[in-house]
Amino acid sequence: MAAKQKKQTKKQKKQKLVKKPTILNAFNYVDRFWQKNIFVIPLFIGLSFLIYFQCIPFGYVLDDQIVISDNNYTKKGVAGLWDIFANESFEGYFGEQKDLVQGGRYRPLSIMMFAVEYAISPANTKLNHFINIFLYGLCCLLLFRVLSQILPQKEEKWYLTLAFCISLLFLVHAVHVEAVANIKGRDEILAMIFGMSALHFSINYIKSKSIKDLIFMGVLFYLGLLSKENVLTFLGVIPMTLLIFTKGLGASIRKVFGLLAIITIAYLFQRYLIIGYLINTNPFTDVMNNPFADMNGAEKYATIFYTLLKYIGLSIIPHPLTHDYYPYHIPIMNWGKPSVLLSFLLHGLLFFYALLNWKKQPIISWSLLFYLFTISIVSNIIFGVGTFMNERFIFISSLGMITLLVYLFLHYLPERWPAAKSVGYGLVGFLFGFYAYKSFERVPVWESALSLNTAAVEVSKNSARANSFMATALYQESLKGGNPEEVKDMLIRGKAYADHALSIIPNYKNANIMKAGIAGELHKKGGSLQELLQAFREVGSVRPSIEFIEQYCDYLADRRDHFDEVKEFYYDLGWNVLNQEKNSYNYALKYLKKAYSMSSTDPRIRKAMSHTHRMLGNTAEAKRFE
Predict the structure, then answer these.
(1) Domain ranges across the chain
(2) Angle formed by the axes of helices 162-172 and 125-150, nearest 10°
(3) Tens digit of each residue's pLDDT (9 = 90 or more) over 347-395
(4) Of 39, 136, 580, 612, which residue is 20 to 30 A from 450 by alpha carbon distance?
(5) Which is nearest to 241 in space by CA: 354, 341, 349?
């Protein structure tokens, strides 16, 4: 009897220890941290949607067509997943590997997600935008979790801690709008999520020595690399963080670094097998894919340090914002410019200060090193990234500058000047309001190509790409029809933007195409033939390969009322411009053949044909036209 009672007592005690399972208990089992900070979850997710809900109805813009709307692999849905992982990331758009930029592109993870979403609901931009916004909120929650692991929690209230204030400012920072509002920017968000997740589990491993945490770290780091190459910098960020903030033994940190290094080598080998190179040694010389193509070494690095100074400025004060930093919104710089020298000295000072003071000022050192490590891969110093700079490029690295600002305002200055504490929170509050306002104001810009480029040309006035794309947007808008006067006005404005783009880069292909296309539309709307042919002559002199010129002129010739004018145009462009001025004999022959087909007995045309064939070494053909 006594033994039976004893068993019952043990059973009752055991039942008391086992709590009835609930969703909250299960969540706390995963990470008890959230039990104390549960209110941050709806706050961050809600704030993310509060700022970015505006973009949910928006369509595809900018590079969305490359990875989604015009990507044949994405549009296959689940059936395209093998092609997405087995090929360079832009091959699904171009139909072949183009190798446009020096480092190549292999970012299959975000494109995989787009393919799955396409399979669920084809071309559903609302779904794409919703997922971007939700992932951004999760990303900021993750930052709060990781920063809470490494930064001191001197304040009892979670909303006064460094980790919360930093994560909150990151969430509302306007320089991140491009990554969130542009669907293609998901690769930036995923890279941040997986990179910081790998950091989280590396910290867990130092504390627990559990092989499970080490494995999680490795898997998440690899997924980050598949999201975007920027995560390579976490090969330095993670060991640096462990060294500064944890009490881990050197052996534990070496294990972490060793695993990260092995995964990095495996990833680079995988990337090499798929793309065929790690760094393209024969990059494009087109300035739109290699903006340094026409610069010498001194100009290149002077311009790079100029952009690095602008990155620091945008990390702190995100104004003015633009999606276009192409030639020559960023001007060609030299080492005689004060801003270049200031940038070089500032970055050197920040780097050496961080190295020398990591024990005395760990948070300042970590902030600076995190910023410098993560921006290095997009700086154009290691390899060319295809443009001078972009706001989305500092999506990850901006965390370093935000951390530095918040720490200076809330801890560093108050420790030396106690009265500065309330001032510090006031400054953080001001930045929160300023960043949130700028973000909310910036999001509508991403509604369409027209709204995006209208905003861009206000800031990037000297960018050939911004002006050309604005011309394109106006041209496409004009094709939708409407009030004839408004349509004509759009075309005239488009012509001005195309002309301005060509004044910056005369042989810019897209701008020349738009100049020719707009000239054709203006002619249809009652413009003079002389203005049309003059525009075609200007375009043909620098871009004779543009087929629209030939197509439109054939259309005019077929009408017979402009037959003689078109024949003279072909002769003039072929002989006077391409042969005599440009010595471009193959293209000269192309247009002279068109003139010859219209008047085979004209002695001027026959003489021009003979001369051009002779210059090409076609002696027999040359004699045939004598």
Answers:
(1) 34-276, 286-434, 448-527, 529-626
(2) 160
(3) 999 999 999 999 999 999 999 999 999 999 999 998 889 899 999 999 9
(4) 136
(5) 354
Length of the chain: 626
In angstroms, rounded to a whole number, what is the distance separating the alpha carbons of residues 70 and 86? Answer: 18
Q: What is the pLDDT of residues 142-161, one digit of tens each?
A: 999 999 999 977 666 888 89
The one-letter amino acid code at 408 reads: L
- Rounded to 5 degrees, what angle do the CA atoms 230, 383, 303 make? 105
CA–CA distance, 563 with 512 (Å, rounded to integer):
24
Identify which of 521, 526, 525 has the alpha carbon closest to the alpha carbon of residue 535: 521
- May I ask the CATH architecture of the domain 448-527? Alpha Horseshoe (1.25)
State the alpha helices, DSSP H only, in 173-320.
Answer: 177-181, 186-208, 211-227, 234-245, 250-275, 297-316
Residue 415's pLDDT band, with cuts at 50, 70 and 90, is confident
- Report DSSP letters for 581-622, one per residue: IT--HHHHHHHHHHHHHH-TT-HHHHHHHHHHHHHTT-HHHH
Residues 410-432, mean pLDDT to the nearest whole number: 90
Whole-prediction pTM: 0.91
Cβ count within 10 A of residue 14: 9
| 491: exposed, middle or buried (Cβ count in 10 Å: 0-12, 13-18, 19+) | buried
Residues 6+ apart with CB under 8 A from 347: 305, 308, 372
